[in-house]
Design brief:
Layout (H helix, E strand, L loop, with lengths): L2 H22 L4 H20 L6
Helix pairs in contact: 1-2
């Protein structure tokens, strides 16, 4: 596990917390969808960069 994968996973989890917070505050759905896409991309990139696959 290298530093970049850790950072990407942490940022993805941070964005997931933002999604939860924005949904509770009844923010616009477009913003929540955009945040969801960013969180999914960060988490996917972080998991794919892990060194456990080789």
């Amino acid at each position: 596990m290298n530093g970049l994968s850790t950072i990407l996973i942490v940022v993805g989890l941070f964005l997931l917390g933002g999604i939860y917070s924005f949904a509770k505050q009844k923010m616009p759905k477009g913003l929540i969808v955009l945040l969801s896409i960013g969180a999914a991309m960060c988490l996917a990139a972080g998991v794919l960069r892990l060194d456990v696959w080789s």
